[in-house]
From TrEMBL:
PANTHER family: FRUCTOSE-1,6-BISPHOSPHATASE, CYTOSOLIC (PTHR11556:SF41), FRUCTOSE-1,6-BISPHOSPHATASE-RELATED (PTHR11556). Residues 205-334 form the Fructose-1-6-bisphosphatase class 1 C-terminal domain. InterPro entries: FBPase_C_dom, FBPase_class-1, FBPase_N, FBPtase, Fructose_bisphosphatase_AS. It is found in: Cytoplasm. This is Fructose-1,6-bisphosphatase, cytosolic. It comes from Hibiscus sabdariffa (roselle). Its cofactor is Mg(2+). Belongs to the FBPase class 1 family. Pfam families: FBPase (PF00316), FBPase_C (PF18913). The keyword Protein biosynthesis does not apply.
Amino acid sequence: MDHEADAYRTDLMTITRFVLNEQSKYPESRGDFSILLSHIVLGCKFVCTAVNKAGLAKLIGLAGETNVQGEEQKKLDVLSNEVFVKALVSSGRTCILVSEEDEEATFVAPSKRGRYCVVFDPLDGSSNIDCGVSIGTIFGIYMVKDDHEPTLDDVMQPGKNMLAAGYCMYGSSCTLVLSTGEGVNGFTLDPSLGEFILTHPNIKIPKKGKIYSVNEGNAKNWDGPTAKYVEKCKFPKDGSSPKSLRYIGSMVADVHRTLLYGGIFLYPADKKSPNGKLRVLYEVFPMSFLMEQAGGQAFTGKQRALDLIPEKIHERSPIFLGSYDDVEEIKALYGAEVKGK
Ligand code: AFP
């Protein structure tokens, strides 16, 4: 990369400019989506700053039970949730919010209501905060079905009905990856400008990858197809090289690497957790949407992930997502099991 040329680049494609460009393709558009997105971006910037300060705050003793004013310090995931809920409600463009942090869905008051439903995990991977591992925010966006009083049915829709999905990764840089259903684009926060700049246009996942990503500590409880697949990754019988294992345990970071380098990310069902661990609405759906938009696939062990119809807002599902050919292999193994029964 030519860093010097980069430093002097003058035509910057910010995320706002990018979304407004997209919007101009639809003359009937009222700009509601751009406004909603600008509020999500604000939430991401806030959380990015808070995550960056987390280690320092601890070091200088601000993060105990109470802060200097004697007020109770909020945990970062609780704080992030509050920031996103307030930003989304104040956008005036949302009607239902489903957050990983809140047991119940939030119905926005009629005076502030818009047409979008946002499902999100404000700080996914938060158990990794204290050791400085990359964590992130994941979100998906639906539109209310018709002109009616919003109900939970408006969010209990298959992932394929999402209008947009994305994540923001708080890592060595802060990267926002977004799809509005026409490919996937990545933006990196320039801290000096406070703007997300298009750095990864039109991301396409390699058709086949060299990495598998799974919590192998659960192997004892896996079902046959998952066990066979991972065995194949390690001991391929077709003369190909074994795949490398990479597992961070923070979905945004594991999926981001999978998207850029190719390969497969698995969180399968096991005997202890028959539905896996990851949540359908704000983990499985947004990441599956991005994978498909980048040319990959996402599969639950039974069906295309985006065809799933959730029955509960915090429902879980097994998930296998990544490069097209790698997911084909796991689909074949599950298919063979069904035929053998
Ligand atoms: P936390 O938010 O509790 O850290 O969980 C993270 C997560 O939901 C997801 O980001 C990871 O992919 C997955 O759990 C890791 O789960 P295991 O620790 O069971 O491997």
